[in-house]
Amino acid sequence: CHGNICRSPMAEFLFKDLVARRGLADQFEIASAATSREEIGNPVHWGTREKLRECGISVAGKYAVQMTRADYKKYDYLLGMDQYNIRNMSRIVGSDPEGKIRRLLDFTDHPRDIADPWY
């Protein structure tokens, strides 16, 4: 997501929890990153930490990082939360010949953006 402090860390840690509970953690490499530099080095937003804590999920040690061009080679999918992020992700990696860049909710029956709670 934009700053890697709200939506993307929530998605990262929910997905990590989901695959761990199914015994599949060793089959996935899951991470999240920002499309901007605004929040680099900052911890996960307190509201996101609190919601995940309510679900028994810790985000200890997670600080905002920025997406890099190298991420395109490293990961099978690069999932963005909204069209704004998709444009920025495409700008960062240069091109998407393998179709790896998608919105997260494009994998559901109701594809759409996930609104940025910051705004």
Quick tags:
Rossmann fold, 119 residues, mainly alpha, 2 strands
Report the major sheet.
Answer: 2 strands, parallel
CATH superfamily: Response regulator
CATH level-3 fold name: Rossmann fold
Question: Segments where pLDDT lies below 50 for 5+ residues?
Answer: none
Report on this model:
This protein is mainly alpha-helical. It has a single domain, classed as Rossmann fold (3-Layer(aba) Sandwich), CATH 3.40.50. It contains four helices and two strands, in the order H-H-H-E-H-E. The protein has helices spanning 7-21, 46-54, 70-74, 83-93, and strands spanning 78-80, 101-103. The chain has a two-stranded parallel sheet. The longest helix is centred in the first third of the chain and has 15 residues, at 7-21. It is globular and about 40 Å long.
Outline:
Helix content is 34%, strand content 5%.
Layout of helices and strands, plus pairs?
Elements: H1 7-21, H2 46-54, H3 70-74, E1 78-80, H4 83-93, E2 101-103
Parallel strand pairs: 1-2
